[in-house]
């Protein structure tokens, strides 16, 4: 276990509604409680398995807890603040409560398969009372698209969907033959003498049809359950599809990123309704060398107006606000400023690459908030009603979040040259299969697509991937530590590449150095040359469909795909042919003149 400064303790709740007691049973990093081990997820601690409990059962927000503020996200999500899971095992901070799940366990000694209470296990680690052997949590669970989860119905699987009221009178046993690791070698038997069955086929889609329906169980919220008509699906408890985080993020931009706003935020309760604002500021002694009384008054008035207004807090509006902030200079005025963005002039980049603006984001802050989660499928606009809640009853006035402090580079493409290129018939025809697959993805759920897949979107997205791959070789950051943030619409044509680490390593200057060294033009040249050839060519570049749900064309792990933590679109909507062309259409790509077009088939061995 790592030191308490980096790990967050988790406590086992001995019973539903029980207070958090005892010493921590394990620890995870604070960032993992947002992305990997958030509310409703399964976490392995030693040989045991637990589920992180809902926010209702977390300790109350106290004076020692570290709160995070990001004004735009707070308004969108309807909370007063965000809570950073403290990296300490001190009693002042409380701990993250967990419950034992799956509840079904097996004993490696007597092979008995039952719920934990039947073994007489009252402490952690759970042991069989007869064999004194540590119990093994069930390898399998059942989930549905609505977010429910329950133990695998072993009794009904064995008895072909038979009623389970009398299942307590049956002694089930689970035995692995050891011949192989396949599901066919995991055998379930019963004391009633029914013919034993294996787990073969249990994980197939529709395998539980006629066997079991969704129980609507939500164990992370206590005993809460609800009616559900979604078909359940069996999964291994460690599978990635058991839990997907639904994370909302935003950059801190002016005016909320300014140091004076932090000063106002700290004492907002006192300043919010003060009639004599100047007198209150003087009484509290807030004015200092950095900020005058007039500047503080202006910041307070700005926040008052924001609270009284009805500003658009949709994702599109937030992205557009960030785009505007990234396209205009913001010089550094104070050390506690969260956003510093200054231009870099290079005429060669504009003339050769049609990139008309390069901004060095010397300091940025991103807040990532866990707002819900999904099961079976990652959260997206095609399943907006399948988010599982983090709390059972009243919504708390906070949500768990982390902040990322780092640096980045923003690139904006020349709008006129981009419009001329994307208006070409051959370019538009190139994205038709991707757009059709995207529309089909929504049609299966009876929904309307949330956007059109355009050549501009696919090309800029693929360009961001190509540059991240290149900079990961030059900057000292691995590709998984870099992220993209796309700003693409009729009125936007840019992207931000920034560091994604949640500690000080995100601001070491490796990304900014790619610009300030004067090598930006060269690095993009090299990136285009690199993507002009793929070890999977000609199959890759000539592919009509590839990737998840056929949402890519010429894109694979050998050329432009990234770790999925780095990509906004989960490695979809990519096509490197829109960058460098194809053998049959060498001038198709926006940057085809840099790589000389894609190499002919004869050059591929």
Task: Describe the protein in words.
- With about 600 residues, the chain is an alpha+beta fold.
- The protein is built from 17 helices and 22 strands.
- It has helices at about 30-35, 70-75, 155-160, 260-265, 270, 275-285, 295-310, 315-325, 345-355, 415-420, 425-430, 430-445, 455-475, 515, 520-530, 575-580, 590-595; strands at about 5-10, 25-30, 40-45, 50, 65-70, 80-85, 95-100, 105, 110-115, 135, 140-145, 150, 170-175, 185-190, 195-200, 235, 245-250, 340-345, 355-375, 400-415, 480-490, 495-500.
- The strands form 4 sheets. Strands 5, 6, 17, 18, 19, 20, 21 and 22 form an 8-stranded mixed beta sheet that branches.
- Strand 8 and strand 9 (about 110-115) form a beta hairpin.
- The longest helix has 20 residues, at about 455-475.
- The chain starts with 6 loop residues before the first strand and ends in a 10-residue tail after the last helix.
Give the DSSP E fraction (strand runs of 2 or more residues). 15-25%
Distance between the termini: 49 Å
With helices defined by DSSP (H or I, 4 residues minimum), what is the helix count? 17
How confident is the prediction overall: mean pLDDT?
83
**How does the helix and strand content classify structurally?**
alpha+beta
Main beta-sheet annotation: 8 strands, mixed
Give Rg in angstroms.
Answer: 28 Å
Shape: globular
Helical fraction equals 10-25%
Spans with pLDDT under 50 lasting ≥5 residues? 1-8, 14-21, 596-605
| Number of DSSP strand runs | 22
């Amino acid at each position: 276990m790592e030191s308490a400064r980096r790990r967050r303790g988790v406590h086992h709740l001995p019973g539903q509604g029980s207070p958090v007691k005892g010493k921590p049973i394990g620890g995870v990093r604070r960032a993992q409680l947002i992305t990997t081990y958030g509310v409703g997820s399964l976490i392995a601690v030693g040989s045991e398995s637990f589920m992180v409990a809902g926010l209702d059962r977390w300790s109350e927000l106290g004076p020692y807890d570290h709160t995070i503020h990001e004004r735009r996200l707070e308004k969108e999500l309807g909370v007063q603040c965000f809570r950073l899971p403290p990296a300490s095992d001190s009693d002042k901070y409380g701990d993250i409560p967990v419950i034992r799940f799956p509840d079904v366990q097996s004993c490696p000694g007597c092979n008995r398969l039952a719920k934990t209470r039947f073994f007489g296990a009252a402490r952690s680690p759970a042991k069989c009372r007869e064999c004194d052997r540590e119990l093994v949590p069930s390898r399998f669970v059942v989930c549905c698209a609505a977010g429910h989860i329950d133990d695998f119905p072993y009794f009904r699987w064995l008895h072909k969907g038979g009623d389970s009221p009398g299942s307590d009178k049956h002694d089930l046993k689970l035995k692995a033959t050891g011949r192989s690791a396949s599901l066919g070698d995991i055998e379930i038997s019963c004391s009633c003498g029914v013919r034993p069955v294996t787990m073969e086929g249990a994980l197939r889609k529709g395998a539980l049809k006629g066997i079991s329906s969704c129980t609507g169980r939500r164990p992370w919220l206590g005993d809460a359950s609800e009616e559900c008509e979604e078909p359940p699906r069996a999964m291994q408890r460690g599978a990635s599809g058991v839990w997907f985080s639904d994370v909302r993020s935003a950059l801190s931009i002016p005016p909320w990123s300014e140091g004076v706003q932090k000063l106002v935020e700290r004492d907002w309760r006192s300043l919010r309704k003060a009639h004599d604002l100047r007198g209150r500021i003087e009484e509290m002694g807030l004015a200092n060398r950095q900020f005058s009384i007039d500047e503080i008054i202006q910041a307070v008035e700005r926040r008052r107006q924001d609270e009284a207004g009805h500003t658009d807090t949709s994702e599109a509006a937030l992205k557009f606000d960030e785009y505007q902030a990234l396209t205009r200079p913001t010089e550094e005025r104070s050390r506690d400023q969260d956003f510093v963005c200054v231009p870099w002039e290079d005429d060669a980049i504009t003339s050769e690459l049609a990139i008309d603006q390069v901004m060095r984001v010397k300091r940025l802050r991103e807040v990532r908030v866990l707002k819900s989660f999904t099961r079976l499928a990652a959260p997206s606009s095609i399943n907006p009603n399948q988010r599982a809640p983090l709390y059972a009853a009243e919504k708390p006035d906070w949500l768990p979040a982390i902040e990322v402090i780092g640096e980045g580079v923003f690139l904006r493409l020349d709008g006129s040259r981009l419009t001329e290129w994307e208006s070409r018939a051959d370019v538009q025809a190139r994205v038709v299969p991707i757009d059709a697959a995207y529309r089909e993805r929504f049609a299966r759920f009876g929904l309307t697509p949330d956007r059109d897949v355009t050549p501009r979107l696919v090309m800029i997205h693929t360009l961001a991937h190509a540059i991240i791959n290149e900079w990961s070789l030059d900057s000292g950051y691995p590709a998984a530590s870099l992220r993209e943030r796309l700003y693409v619409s009729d009125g936007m044509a840019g992207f931000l590449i920034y560091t994604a680490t949640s500690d000080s390593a995100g601001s070491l200057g490796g990304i900014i150095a790619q610009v300030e060294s004067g090598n930006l033009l060269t690095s993009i040249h090299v990136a285009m040359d690199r993507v002009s050839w793929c070890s999977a060519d000609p199959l890759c570049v000539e592919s009509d469909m590839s990737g998840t749900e056929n949402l890519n064309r010429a894109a694979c792990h050998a050329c432009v795909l990234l770790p999925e933590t780095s990509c906004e679109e989960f490695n979809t909507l990519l096509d490197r042919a829109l960058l460098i062309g194809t053998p049959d259409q060498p001038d198709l790509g926006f940057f085809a003149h840099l790589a000389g077009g894609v190499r002919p088939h004869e050059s591929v061995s």
